[in-house]
Amino acid sequence: MKMSEDKYANLDQLCNKGASKNENAYEDDIASQDSRDKTKKDATSKIRPGANPSSSDNSRRRPSRAAAVCLGLLCVLLLAGIVGLGLHHKHIFSEFEDCKASNINLAKMKDQLQISFNNITKEKDQLQTSFNTMKKETDQLQTSFNTMTKEADQLQTSYNTMKKERDQLQTSFNTMTKETDQLQTSYNTMKKERDQLQTSFNTMTKEADQLQTSYNTMKKERDQLQTSFSDLKQAGPKGWTLFQSSWYYISSEVKSWDESRQDCLERGADLVIINSKEEQTFLTMPDKRVWIGLTDKDREGTWKWVDGTPLTTAYWSGQQPDNGNGDPIYGEEDCAEIVIMWIWNDISCANHFNWVCEKVINSVII
Ligand SMILES: [Ca+2]
Ligand SMILES: [Ca+2]
Ligand SMILES: [Ca+2]
């Protein structure tokens, strides 16, 4: 717009300059004409003093001719001046017409420029409106940009936080993976152990079944034996006496210690072994001397029961056992008897006494 205005101003200056130039040229032409007229007058004034005053005819004719010549010259000059002025005026008129045409063109151009200026003004207003709109949009965009920048910052913060959490999760995942591997290894180991235990359990189950079967069989046998024992208890062997957990046979004959033991063995028993004070009291016979299953035949002074167990609790009388006290009449005394009043004595095994066989019930009942 400014450019258009400047252009318009330049056109005005050009027009004014042209007009001013024409005016100045006209003024210069007039001044030139005046100068030529002055020069002519001066020439005339110079000629008049040059006339010869000594001859009166010549003086009268010569001024006339001179005046005629001067007049002719003046006419020529005047004609030349008129022609020059006419040409000059024609030239000026032509320039004036040109200037007028230029002014018209300039006026048209001015109108067009005015129209263009108006159009440009409208466009400027529209551009201003667009600029304002764009400025608002720019402000809105700036606001949006600021909002998006904040959101971007928040997102960046969230991203960093999530990245840290991801790293922590990755670490936890790796740790859990290791633990999982360890657990898997432990699981495999436990699985193997379980399988082994299962195998052992199956084996033990089979063994338990076998044991249960054996137990059931043995239980039946025990029941049968219990029944047999009950029957036997109710009606024991003839001549046998039951005391606590043993059956006892007290002989009515007398024999040596070895013969007595042989008799007991033939009866499915052995010479009595005294395990308690009650049994000792039970076996005390007020009128008999009886062999018991105690001897030191194998080693003098080392008394053992017939089942091989050593003697722990004894009921020897006074100085007994004395092994005959060195008296040849008694000889070697290697067998034990219960004498009257329940005390024990060692005596020669060759003596003949009654004897007591013992059959332990517990050894029969399973
Ligand atoms: Ca006994
Ligand atoms: Ca002895
Ligand atoms: Ca003795």
Would you kindly provide a written description of the structure presented here, covering whatever features stand out?
By secondary structure, the protein is of the alpha+beta class. The protein has 2 domains: 143 residues; 122 residues, Mannose-Binding Protein A, Chain A (Roll), CATH 3.10.100. Strands 1, 2, 3, 4, 5, 6, 7 and 8 form an 8-stranded mixed sheet that branches. Helix 1 packs antiparallel against helix 2. The protein is rod-shaped. The N terminus is likely disordered. The site of one calcium ion has 7 residues, from loops.
Features:
rod-shaped, Mannose-Binding Protein A, Chain A, alpha+beta, binds calcium ion
The computed structural class is alpha+beta
* Parts with pLDDT < 50 across at least 5 consecutive residues: 1-34, 36-56
Write down the overall mean pLDDT. 80
What ligand molecules are bound, each kind once? calcium ion
Give the number of DSSP strands: 8
Gyration radius, rounded: 87 Å
Helix content: 55-70%
Order of helices and strands: HHEEHEHEEEEE
Name the quaternary structure.
single chain
Question: What is the number of helices?
Answer: 4
For the terminal residues, how far apart are their CA atoms?
136 Å
The biggest beta sheet, please?
8 strands, mixed
Our count of domains comes out at 2
